[in-house]
Amino acid sequence: MKRNNFYQGVQAGLPVAFGYLPIAVAFGVFAKNTGLSTTAAVLMSVAVFAGASQFVALSLLAIGNGHWQIIITTFILNLRHFLMSAAVAPRLKPGKMAPLVAFGITDETFSILSFHPAAENNPAFALGVNTIAYLGWVSGTLGGALMGQELPALLQTSMGIALYAMFIGLLVPKLKTSKTAVCLTILAMAFNALFSWGPPPLSTLAKGWKLIITTILVCTTGTLFFPEEVAKDE
Amino acid sequence: MNKQVLLMILGMALGTYLPRLLPLVFGLSNALPSWLRRFLSFVPYALLSALIFPELLFSTGSVASAVAGGLVALALAFYNVNLFLVVIGAIAGVLFTQLLGG
């Protein structure tokens, strides 16, 4: 593994780690309030490393749902990572490092790995991105669990935008160079809005399913109507 | 920590790791048919877009401040500003709007 590539990955992943911190702190605080011990809260972040499903687990625990239901919900919510891993696999070519790289695939690291030019054929870079993001997530959880109370409310709500801003920062520059990408983006937002504001059963689907179905519909439409991969359409 | 909670965390870990692992391990990096390559090349755009909208609107204390933060991010990203600054600019936009009472 090349050390320089790893450090370059750490650098590229810093905004992710930074964006994770306030969310992880909130998770730690929320976990304590739900009755988990500090050890359990940190262990969950260490072993699971998936923000959305960890929060969902807490809210299900809070209303007294069974543990099996929580495990199955986690699985459904994270099936989208199957699509992500499949999408970055040809780009990263992880080889023997696949089991390590796979552990760190999240919505956020995935977006860096998809769009950063250095990620091409570069598993060490991927490992750098994932490692710094993971450290941000775990240390934030520990901090929140130890603190046990909220950050100033105004600051915390303001930081809720951080990860979305990062998605925008990654996506928008790509849209300037590719009409295909613009079409895909509009289509995906329209489908997802339909899932959010449309009639039941669309709006009552679990969030994990909404993301998966939107992604599959959009990519299938794209495959039928756009003859080129996005990367070649620049 | 009781055993039930430990088992739940292990179950969650497995349910998260397997979907991440399988495509990376099983040969998906080898030659793929061109339609599948195209399909996969579209995934980041579809998924990122779906993650952004409409969830962004509800990510802060109010829709108005979220829109303000989102617009700041959009403007900065359009000019290829460093990712860090896009994030900080968006947070500042939200904070400012909330301080104004929005």
What does this structure look like?
The complex is a heterodimer of chains A (234) and B (102). By secondary structure, chain A is mostly helical. Chain A has two domains: 3-160, no CATH class; 177-234, no CATH class. Chain A contains twelve helices and no strands. In chain A, helix 1 (3-34) runs parallel beside helix 3 (51-62) and helix 2 (38-47) packs antiparallel against helix 8. The mean pLDDT of chain B is 88. Chain B has helices spanning 3-25, 34-52, 63-78, 83-99. Chain B has 102 residues and is mainly α. At the A-B interface, helix 1, helix 2, helix 3, helix 4 and helix 5 of A face helix 1, helix 2, helix 3 and helix 4 of B.
- Which segments of chain A are poorly predicted (pLDDT under 50) over 5 or more consecutive residues? none
> Shape of chain B, please?
flat
Largest interface, with counts of residues having CB < 8 Å to the other chain, equals:
A-B, 101 and 72 residues
Roughly what is the average pLDDT of chain A, rounded to an integer? 87
Overall average residue pLDDT of chain B: 88
* Main beta sheet strand tally, sense and closure of chain B: none
Topology:
The complex is a heterodimer of chains A (about 230) and B (about 100).
Chain A: H1 3-34, H2 38-47, H3 51-62, H4 67-78, H5 80-92, H6 98-103, H7 107-115, H8 123-147, H9 153-159, H10 162-175, H11 179-197, H12 207-225
Chain B: H1 3-25, H2 34-52, H3 63-78, H4 83-99
Helix pairs in contact in B: 3-4
Q: How would you summarize what this structure contains?
A:
The complex is a heterodimer of chains A (234) and B (102). With 234 residues, chain A is mainly α.
List keywords for this structure.
heterodimer, A: 234 residues, mainly alpha, 0% strand, globular, B: mainly alpha
